[in-house]
Amino acid sequence: MIVASKAPVVVPSLLAGDLSRLGEQLDAVKAAGCHWLSVDVMDGHFVPNLSFGPDFVKLAKSKGFYVDTHLMVTNPLDVAPWFVEAGTDILTAHIEAVKDGRTALQAIRKLGVKAGLAVKPNTPVDGLIAALEFCDLALVMTVEPGFGGQKFLAGMMPKVVALRAEIDANNLNCWIQVDGGVNAVNISQAAAAGADSLVAGSAVFAANDPAAAFRELELKARAAFKPQQ
Ligand code: DX5
To answer: Distance, CA 179 to ligand 1 centroid (Å)?
Structure first.
């Protein structure tokens, strides 16, 4: 059991993996101490891209990783059972794709996995804060979802600060995840704002040495993280 808000965790995203040698890359980051991967699922409708199905969750689980599945789809609750079946530990839906965040989170938890809720850059964090009591992972997107390799939107940090304050004030066990454009330059800013799960795709898998890149990111995040005082 990985407990949230104890120390930040860097979570490589498979989206940036080199599919011709993904197994090798996963072994390398695992050897460097990585234990959590993020699988981005895109349906070509909620976002203008298509990506992975449940088999990629199965691959990550077969290698012993903890897995969050980030559903960038218009019907997250319809496809959720497929990823639960594949073994995901956390299922994250977008608040923009559900009628009510609280109900969606409870429906995901009923499937027997941890429940996450995500907000796109233009979506205020209020709906996420209102759903925190049912939330195991609050995801603040720092890029417009759909593609890896985009520029980190530092303007999203106030959402992280607000979530950190709410989670700490109510002693909730909920991860604050940041996803999009995270790299060695901006990870300290995200961790200092209070993010304790930092998704990094290109910064890890596009690096010459993904293991070294992972280690560097984790060191920087841990040095900057501000846990509950
Ligand atoms: C966007 C994806 C990406 C990915 C991370 O929809 O969610 O943010 O996981 O990719 P990088 O780290 O390359 O932005």
So the answer is: 6
pTM of the model: 0.96
pLDDT grade for 110, boundaries at 50, 70 and 90: very high
CB burial of 192-213 (b: ≥16 within 10 Å; e: otherwise) equals bbbbbbbbbbbbbbbbeebbeb
Other beta carbons less than 10 A from residue 168's beta carbon: 15
Does the Cβ of 49 fall within 6 Å of ligand 1? no
Residue of 40, 68, 89, 136 marked catalytic = 40
What is the rounded CA–CA span in Å between residue 163 and residue 157? 10
When pLDDT is cut at 50, 70 and 90, the band that residue 7 belongs to is: confident
Pick the CATH number of 9-222 from 3.20.20.140, 3.40.190.290, 1.10.530.10, 3.20.20.70: 3.20.20.70
Ligand 1 atom index nearest CA of 181: 14
CA of 184 to the centre of ligand 1 (A): 15
What proportion of the chain, given as a percentage, has pLDDT over 90?
95
Model pLDDT for residues 184-199, shown as the tens digit of each residue: 999 999 999 999 999 9
What are the domain boundaries of the chain?
A: 9-222
Q: Is the Cβ atom of 180 under 6 angstroms away from ligand 1?
A: yes
